[in-house]
Amino acid sequence: MTVSEPTTHVEDSLPELRRSMAGVVLAPAESGYDAARRCFNALIDRRPAVIARCFGARDVATAFDFARMHALEVAVRGGGHNPAGHCVGDGGLVIDLSLMRRVDVDGDARIARVQGGATWLDFDAASQALGLATPGGVVGSTGVAGLTFGGGIGHLTAQHGLTCDHLAGAEVVTPDGATVQAGPGENGELLWGMRGGGGNFGVATCLEFRLYPLDRVVGGRLTYAGSGVRDAFRLFRDLAARGPRDLSCQAILSVDESLEPTLVVAPCYTGSETDPEELRTLRTAAGLVADGVRAHGFLGQQHVFNPPYNEDRTYWKGHFVRELPDELIDELLRRVVALGRPPGQVLIESLHGAPKDGDGSIGAVGFRNAAFNITAMATWQDAALDDPYIAWARDTAAAIQPWSVRGGYLNYMQADEPIERVRAAFGDEAFGRLQTLKKRYDPNNILHRNQNIPPL
Ligand SMILES: Cc1cc2nc3c(=O)[nH]c(=O)nc-3n(C[C@H](O)[C@H](O)[C@H](O)COP(=O)(O)OP(=O)(O)OC[C@H]3O[C@@H](n4cnc5c(N)ncnc54)[C@H](O)[C@@H]3O)c2cc1C
Fold this sequence. Notes:
With 456 residues, the chain is of the alpha+beta class. It has 14 helices and 20 strands. Helix 11 runs antiparallel to helix 12. Bound molecules: flavin-adenine dinucleotide (FAD).
């Protein structure tokens, strides 16, 4: 990164910054600063020098300018969910997009135009009002842009593919303050890079998504416990292997109060049958202790997982895998009880169906050929337990590693991942192409608080 010497003190220049911006500027000790510096992961406790809550592309360019003048490291904040806490740094400047959450839906064209700080709750509420949806994330408070730039896996993945596959265009402010459009007709290579290459190239102030009709889904949670967990886990795996296009499915392995394994399977069925065979099999399997599956609107499905914001410390590590053999299932069942206390969870996301329709020509995302994404998600509250929980996640990921394909998921990576893991997520060719793109739009690597792609 190239930084110039600061010309004046940050504090002295804040009044001028405030006058130049339509949005809000927060400095330490000011009201609202503490709430604004928090992110989803309570493990992250950082104090930026300035939080620039932008209100449009001009504010973003002004914030970049201010950071350059004062040699401040830049962080970009959308929904604040990235587990690495990239959205906030110590002593730097945060380009905070949380005032930019507008979503406009054109029902005839089936297009949503979304500001850079919108969350999935904002998106789904606006698109579902017209009976439309795009495949997004499963937790409403997650940022649309951040999730899309890493790929995007959720309740409609089997039906429609990855979120980034439906990104049709974007308005981007690059670190030199220029506003560029990315779309099929203009800067198509930039659009390719934003479909999986993370927030490396600029700040997206507006994104355009294709939408699909979606009314009712059949979904919810199925919970298995006791001796049935192992077979239910295999059943989930076999169902995904059959690849039903109208049924997305995720599973969460955890423990109950007795520290015995439990499995939650979260299906989302969008087909026309009233009693589809795959769901019937899951709902009648041995070990089922709670059946929360029912017909509901898609907004209801988007509340199947509602984790609290900024309460838990978390550390995630995992792998895309080419298969989920019995041996790996047994290993995960051993790992989930290995800590001797509730470890958090292991998330298993199936990538069957529509993700396989695309290839590397659509976007940079490199994992669409994997069978599953498996992630150890350590979750705890007591800071004294940081070491054992982080070790549990790392050891569990190491146990998954022999089946790994394409490394880990950019969206779930912590900040301590080496560049080799980021490179592996794309493969050498796509990574080289991304580095060339980075050189064009951010040659000084100003946007390096992310799963970084250094310029060539
Ligand atoms: C509870 C929870 C649930 C999740 N569920 C899913 C899921 O269902 N599917 C899935 O695929 N992932 C999921 N994720 C992972 C999530 O998609 C990524 O962590 C993503 O980076 C979060 O984006 P954000 O804007 O909320 O986070 P932030 O921490 O605010 O941003 C993360 C990074 O994204 C970039 N960024 C964000 N907005 C912009 C923008 N407008 N312009 C340029 N760069 C930007 C920046 O580099 C920023 O540092 C989940 C994470 C959590 C914590």
